[in-house]
Each structure stands twice: as C-alpha cells, then as structure tokens.
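Students often ask what a 'structure token' actually looks like in practice. Rather than answer in the abstract, let us consider Stage 0 sporulation protein A homolog, a protein of 243 residues. Its sequence is given first.
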Amino acid sequence: MNNIIICEDNIHERKQLISILNSEIEKFDCKIALSTGNPYEVIRHIDNRTSSFIYFLDIDLNSDLNGFELAKLIRTYDPNGYIIFLTGHAELTLLTFQYKVQALDYIIKGDINVLKTKVSDCLIAVHNNLTAANTKVDNTISIDVGNNILFLDFKDILFFETAGTEHKISVHTHNGQSEFYGTLKNIEKTVSSDFYKTHRSYLVNTKKIKSIDKSNMVIEMTNDEMCYVSLRYLKGLLKKCLH
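Now compare that with the structural description of the same chain:
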C-alpha cells in the first residue's frame, strides 16, 4: 500500500485535496497517512521510516520552511519518494532548479477540475512506475531519473559513487553515467553479491575490475575509470576478487 502525506497550510484547500484523494485512492491501493499544515510534522512522521511516501506539498507554506525547503529535507529521509508540488503561482515552479529538488509534477491550484485531473494523473504515474519496477527480474535495479525510471542490469553497471550534489548518487556503466537521489547504504542492500563497498564513496562491481593498485589504493575499472579503495576495505576486496 502506498502512503500519502499532505502538507497544505490552507485548511479549505487541504480538505478539498483530501476529498479528491479519497475518491481516487482505492483504485491505486493508497491511504492518507498524514494531513497537516505544519512541515515539521512531516519530518517527524517520516524520520527513521524505511518505506517511501507520495507527498503533496504546498509551496507557499505559512512557516519558516517553504515547500521546496521541506522537499529538500524529505529527500534526506526518503530519497525515492514521489513529490508533487501545489501552488497558486505558476512562476514559483521555476524555483525547483534553484532548490535542486526532484519532483513528479506541479499542480496549479484554483480550478477544481484541473486539480482533480492532475491528482489522478499523478497517482496513475506512481502506480505505473511501481508496477513496472515490480515486474523486473531480480538481476536489475530500477532508478528514478527525473520523471523516468531507468532499469539497469547488474552486469552492465561498473560502479556507484556519491555525486557532488548532496544525497545524490552517480551510477557508471559502459554507456555513460546518470545521477539520482539515494544512498550507497540503500543501494548496497539491493544489488547482487558481485558488488563490494570499497570506500565510503564507492560501491564497485568486482566483475568489472581490471586492476587494483595496492600502493596508491586505486582501482582501475574495465572502462579505464578509476575508483578508490580505503585500507579498511582492501583486504575484503582482494579476498572477494580472488574467489
């Protein structure tokens, strides 16, 4: 079941959104887990939870946190959650580039029919994404890149590394690389046993290693890219590569 969180400070508009969602959620096996006007209640609710949520966030909250700032905090707890922004001002949607927040959609408030349609479209998109991910076999990983889901076979992945942007991961393949929100810790639980954490910033496919420079603590991959290995992980890496 997919849990929905609403953060909308206008009580009338929050009730309106709840009513629309209640007419839709049975179709998509969803429930409203939290409805509030307080962004800090959202953080308290998701703190230390392992499941992801669908978030409907008003941008202009009556708080010291706006919707974009709340979304950035959410990403530290729930990197794979689906965020939908609500706003009465279309120009505010451009600020998403400033805050670097990945969003599924933006809904302009004001027209109840547009709101109903957009809410339904968002739930359909989430449902389709999750359905597609669940139908993939165990030797693949699904990654949310923008509004698309990228499916990668483990054998095609060279390594994962922490990206320059906070809470983002870069996945490297022979065809290039892509960035997405996530943590190495969570990815490590998902990938096959061929992958090994060589450094706090690297998760490497040991089947794609060309050489290991023990003196300089550097790993050369089959595409000639370099990864680091820290002393604490070197012995385990060598053992894994020799078996």
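One point worth highlighting: The chain has a mean pLDDT of 86. Ask yourself how you might have guessed this from the sequence alone, and why that guess would often be unreliable.
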